[in-house]
Amino acid sequence: MNLSIIALVLLGTFLFCFLVQLYFTLFVHLKLARFSVPEVSPAAAGPVTVIICARNEAENLEANLPAILTQDYPDFEVVVVNDRSWDGTKEVLRAFEAQYSNLKVVTVPETARYIAGKKFAVTMGIKAAKHEWLVFTDADCKPESSNWLMGMQQPEDAAVEIVLGYSPYTRTGGLLNALIRFETFFTAVNYLSFAIKGMPYMGVGRNMAYKKALFFKNKGFATHMHIPSGDDDLFVNANAHAGNTAIQIHPDTFMHTDPKRTWGAYLKQKKRHFGAGKMYKARHKFILSAQIIVQFLFYVLLTAMFCLRETQLIAAGLFILSILIRALVYPRLLIKLGYPGLRWWFPLLDILLFIFLVFNGILSIFVKKVQWK
């Protein structure tokens, strides 16, 4: 077959994108698919402090806090930081304090001399913690089981200072919910896989743990206190490395979270996350940007090749091969990470997620102001 110069350029670039896409699938994400999940330890290694920051979370605290306060763990406390709430959070926490001796409430006063934002609340919670090993989650999260803390405790390997957990979103039905869960799945696949590969770059504050000493040794959030988000991923990005980071994805340790219910709320949430990503280390930004750019070019070039009669069959063949290879990995991971129902919609959701990420990236250029709660 004699191809024109334009067709050859399109084909060469498309083939390059195809190979890069396969690299991430087969040499990064497949590591997580093959990861052997050990059973949760039946014994506690040491005392633990759970830290939750709450701003106007009265309803969520009533629904979720008991499952955390009653974990099957012999020695732990729960520190809840009430960050200037006005919805009855104070009264809810006061009632829980009378019922549970392992609950400690810290209050951020409503005064101009205090720094607003979640990072300040997290810092207050860490300072109030009496134990070295800190486990973090949010008020709208509920653990899968009473073994959550047993799985998120300090590992036997003393070198481990950070444990990255997993927090899937609850299924509620509808396209938005499916997209949120699929996007969360791919985010988790990426950061968990790279952690296994020896290059941890982020974690999710809904379910992660680290040592108090690590926080203070590296001056907490000092380098990115001006960023509204990043109390989780930016801290991990700055302090995690191959020797001090482990992952925990046993189903008993999943921390379930209620997703956003409207497109506007979800876009606002993703805007905060996008802002934090700008502060990642250069090599991490390069790799993550390459993933998005290659995926974008893959679909753009695929469309262009379908417009040329001489490259239509080649484009179709490579696209089908890409889907088949990826379908051997990602549906397996969807089952492993608690989303078995989404595996049947994998090809469609993959395309929809790409469209959403491009749209969100463009929107983030024009929408600058974001805040926590």
From TrEMBL:
Q: What is this protein called?
A: Glycosyltransferase 2-like domain-containing protein
Q: Which Gene3D superfamilies match?
A: Spore Coat Polysaccharide Biosynthesis Protein SpsA, Chain A
Q: Which positions carry the signal peptide feature in this UniProt record? A: none
Superkingdom field: Bacteria
| The entry's keywords | Glycosyltransferase, Membrane, Transferase, Transmembrane, Transmembrane helix
In this protein, which residues make up the domain named Glycosyltransferase 2-like?
Answer: 49-165, 177-356
> One Pfam match, by short name?
Glycos_transf_2
UniProt family annotation: Belongs to the glycosyltransferase 2 family.
Which residues span the membrane?
Answer: 6-28, 286-306, 312-330, 342-367
Q: A GO molecular-function term, please? A: glycosyltransferase activity
